[in-house]
Specification:
single chain, mainly alpha
């Protein structure tokens, strides 16, 4: 392979690798940006380099599951949602120990 072929390969594949990687670092969808890089090559790389990080990345938070976002209610199993009688430690439906979380 001649040096000219290597340069051509780098010019073609560099945006295909760098664009999704940079998009992921900025909190954007790497798949969408890979497709953009496939069709737009260096223009997509320049566009993602200029874009600001998404607000979720800039704020330093990540989406959480609904179970993590709400504290468990007293008398309700945090895993399956079954109502527990006062004093119950183990959920009769799923077997979760409500004191240890296992």
């Amino acid at each position: 392979m001649t040096p000219a072929h290597l340069i051509i390969l780098l010019v073609i594949f560099c945006p295909l690798v760098l664009t999704p990687w940079l998009a992921d670092k900025k909190g954007r969808s790497p798949i969408v940006w890979f497709v953009a890089a496939f069709f737009l090559s260096w223009l997509a790389l320049i566009a993602i380099a200029v874009l600001k990080p998404s607000q979720s990345t800039a704020a330093g938070w990540a989406p959480v599951s609904p179970q993590q976002s709400m504290p468990p209610l007293p008398g309700v199993c945090p895993r399956c949602g079954t109502r527990l009688n006062p004093g119950f430690v183990v959920c009769p439906r799923c077997g979760l120990n409500t004191t240890t979380g296992r």
